[in-house]
Amino acid sequence: MPTMSQILIPATTQMLTGLGRCLDKLEAHCAAKSIDPAVFLTARLYPDMFAFTRQVQIACDFAGGAAARLAGEAVPGWPDDEVTLADVKARVQKTLAFVQALPASAMDADEDGLLTLKLGRNAPEMQMPRKTYLLDVVMPNFYFHITTAYGILRHNGLEIGKGDYLARAIPRG
Length: 173
Fold this sequence. Notes:
Layout: H1 4-33, H2 38-41, H3 52-71, H4 85-101, H5 104-108, E1 114-118, E2 125-129, H6 130-155, H7 162-166
Antiparallel strand pairs: 1-2
Helix pairs in contact: 1-3, 1-4, 1-6, 3-4, 3-6
């Protein structure tokens, strides 16, 4: 069975790299078509869903927060103040760098040990095993928000496909 770092680091690296490539394509698309990138950053799939920028922020928060919690580090307190495409791209890169900088050995320590956390702003504190947190909370939520961000871009006309989403060029090792 893979360790927690073997689950978290490659998955978040692959998906955030793919998101970064989609953002590069978005930048080129907006420049070529004379479209204000804010049109995409504020787009949503349905009125009661979060907009694109918020989807990216939440995906980054799950990746960075999980890496920090599992490594016994402080969860990054990044403000959700991204308003430009450059800001959103920087958030993705900052998250990638943060996840990759934490020691895998710290993430893998005591996988059955308990984490104390709140699953929502108004939720009470609770405890759960570290690996349960990773597999049942972090990864499904991370993939949901990454996929929703991709769906918003695609729905609004950005020509991206599954290879962009999956960042196929990343070698497995």
